[in-house]
Amino acid sequence: MAEAKSKGFPAKVVVALVLGLLIGIGVGFGVFQATLTAPTSTQTETGTPTETVYKIGFTLPLSGELSSIGNLWRQAVDIAIEDLNNEVKEYGFNVRFEAVVLDDKTKDEDALKNVQSLHQLGIVVIIGPAASSQVKAVKSYADANKLVIISPSSTAPTLAIPDDFIFRNTGSDAIQAKALAALVAHEGIKNVVVFHRDDEYGRAFAEFFEREFQAFGGTSTVMPYATGLSDYASEVARLSSKVQEVGAEAVVLISFDTDGANILSHAKDDLMLSNVRWFSSEGIHGASELTQPELAEFLMSIKFLGTRPVFKENPLYKEFAQEFRSVTGTDPPVFTEKLYDAVFLAGWSILRAGSYDGEAIKNALPKVAEKYYGASGWCILDDNGDRLMQDYAIWTITQVGENFEFEDIGTYSGGTITIEVMD
Question: Is the whole model's pTM more than 0.85, yes or no?
Fold first, then answer.
C-alpha cells in the first residue's frame, strides 16, 4: 500500500493551487484545510482523546449484472478507506473512517433495502448505488431522511436535479451521448441500431444519442431489450433481424457488463451482426469476458470502439491505477477512480460539516468538491450536484503479447474527437 503522502493532500494541494492560479477557482487547499472543523472527541480518564469513528455506507453490485465491476470496486473501497485514514491522521485528526458494504445485486429494490438498512444503523453518507435506475429508486427515501448519496457511476440525464441529496461524481450522459454520436459519425457511419437496456440508464442514453446522432446527419433505430435475463440469445436474434431490416451499418450497444458480454458472445456467431461495426458506452468497459481470446478476437475484427468518462492527463490517476494493480493484479475498470474519490469527498465533507448530520454534510460536499482534485480529476459539481468537468476516452480491445487488454486510443474533449489510426 502506498504511503499516505503519495495519495494525500500534498500532491492535491499543489494541483488545486495551480488550478486556482490558472482559472480563478479562488482559495486553494491551504485555506480549505484551515476552515475544517475537527470532530468532537471524548477523553479517557487520563485525558487522552479517544479516536472518533465515522461510518460510510456502500451499496455495491457485488452480484448481478454489474458484478464483474462491482467486485473490483469492493477492493477499491478498502484501498480508499485506508488511504483516507492515513491522510486524515497526517493532518492531525484523531478520526477513523470505516466502510459498511452491502450487496445490492444490481437490483433497484435491493439498493433501496440497503439504503434503509444503512440508515437504521445511523449512517447518513452512502456511496452508490451504481445504476441510474437504482439511484432513482433510492432518491425519495434519501431526500426524505436527509441521507447523502454519492454515486460514482449513475449518468442518466433524468436524474440531474438541483438541491436534492443525490450527488454524482461523474458527468451526465447528455454529454457522453454526444461524444458517442460524434465517434460513430467520425467513423463514417450513417445508419445504426441503438440496442439498449430497457431501464433508466439505457432509455435516457438512447434518447440523447438519437438526438445527437441526427444532428450529425445520421439515422438511428432505437431498440430496447429486457434486462435481468440469464441469456440474451433471443434478444440478439431480434437485433439481427432489425439490423437487416433497416440496413444498419453498425450497432450501438448501451449495456452493463454481464448482459453486454453475453450479447456480444451471441453476436459473434451471427452472420449479420458479425459483419457490422459495433460501438458501446462505458457500461461494459472492464468486463473480464471481453478480454477472453474468442470474444476479444471478434471485437478486434469488427474494430469495436467505445466511450468512457475520464479526466485527461492526470498523474494522480496513474498513481491510483498502479496502487490498484498492485492489490488486484488488474487495471481499474470504469468509474473505479470516481468511487475512490467519492470516499475522499465523503470523508472530508463529514469533517468540514463539523457534525455527522446529513443536511450539514450535503451543504459541505459541493464546497469540498470545488477544491478537490483526485484520481478522477477535478471533482467540481454543477448546480444539479453532478460532475461539471468531464472528458471521454475512446477505448477498444487490443492484443499485447498473448493477452488481450482494454486500451484507450483516443479522446473526446471540447467537442473534438482525437483518435489513433486503427489497423
Answer: no
